[in-house]
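Input for the complex:
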Amino acid sequence: MEVLETVAAVRARVRAERRAGKSIGLVPTMGYLHEGHLSLIRRARAECDFVVVSIFVNPLQFGPQEDYNTYPRDLNRDTRLAAEAGADVIFHPTPEEMYPAGFQTHVEVEKLSQGLCGAFRPGHFRGVATVVTKLFNIVGPDRAYFGEKDAQQLAIIRRMVRDLNLDVEIVPMPIVRESDGLALSSRNTYLSPAERRAATVLYRALVYGRDLIAAGERDGLRVRDAVRRTLESEPLVSRIDYVAVVDPDTLEEKTTLSGSVMLAVAAYIGKVRLIDNIKVVVD
Amino acid sequence: MEVLETVAAVRARVRAERRAGKSIGLVPTMGYLHEGHLSLIRRARAECDFVVVSIFVNPLQFGPQEDYNTYPRDLNRDTRLAAEAGADVIFHPTPEEMYPAGFQTHVEVEKLSQGLCGAFRPGHFRGVATVVTKLFNIVGPDRAYFGEKDAQQLAIIRRMVRDLNLDVEIVPMPIVRESDGLALSSRNTYLSPAERRAATVLYRALVYGRDLIAAGERDGLRVRDAVRRTLESEPLVSRIDYVAVVDPDTLEEKTTLSGSVMLAVAAYIGKVRLIDNIKVVVD
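Predicted:
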């Protein structure tokens, strides 16, 4: 498995593949790969002739109080897993390669970045939009693969692609969960055994909200409050950033439920911030 | 001469040319073409197999009190002039084509956008950076051509290309002037005959500053003040936005002159805001 560390190297490699008529797939990740990432790589492998997996813990999307320095990293393991899932090359740049001295350009998707996680992580989605724009420009993929767990990120990237006329197809992939419902996340490794057991409350709360809708509830605020009460019932939930019932594309709150609806939560189990969401189509 | 009005049409056209192995040149303009623009098109013609000229008065780069509605437009004349200079196709989108409902993504080159014109035209360079990113993504040129009259714009676009890894070569072209020194600008058409005569003061002031440096002056502030006094000596100069002595790449003020130096001015002749600049290499 080739691990390329410079923009010039990955560009040259992709250019050669493209000249040979191959289609290019990109799976952008921050590494510490889990089954969620691997499902993206496998899908890219199935749909594209040449698959680039980027592994870059992007400093721009971490706040000063966040876990940039402690975010889990294991390039050897990632390389092996990515190869097994069908990656052709890994792009693993240094922060200096991505943000050389004098760097000062940012991409911002304004309205979509304001609510939900954006309200609690100022600058986070600006960092995401900027690095994803750079990765698209470096690799020039035909398709790029993103997980639906980061639902706000996905909505922002789709909007950005349309707004900036980026010539890439965004392929979303469903959340991969543990057998007890916990959504896979590289940050799950931070959880103690007791926290790990408690963390299932996010999914249970979302399922409870979905069940309410299935039972006929059409008041978004009542669904929201019911999900929140479920989260609050778990003693290890130390803080709830938000519980939201929104349109999955515009991320605007839905008070009367119809069409596509997304229930989304962000909460701390101890000191670990987790997010999850579930989509419902209401008749 | 083909005039294409949609993103899809220009993309399809360029894609076909590229498939045939042709290199692509882009000359982004706001139309009302003058010899400055035509020098860009001719250079693109000489260097590229297929030349796209975009004509789009970009609402995003005009302030609410600025001249978006009255900015001069003449597509028939522009089409003829662009064809004569060697353009292969004109891209002339509507504002709705470029900024459809829900548009909310912006590109910002932060430090470089703050001083000089940026201090007097808040949001202007954000609008420029955003539309140029879009045009690059739509056309996918090998080279794009920009005039040095808009020196801050040029510095910003160069920085943006590096920062966002845009795969395009930026080709700058020298300012084209009238025989009396006035830099060509579509906005010169706003000038009354008396204002047109007075407008030469911008270039005269810059030349005076250059002559001071040639005579040995190495104090940037003294050069700046001398240029300003020359502007002030013209009664039809109704306002001076700035006189600046800066590094042409970083746009930072130079107090002790050495290496590449740019003298830049922005001033109103009556109600017409004009800019000009001159570069000097100091031994």
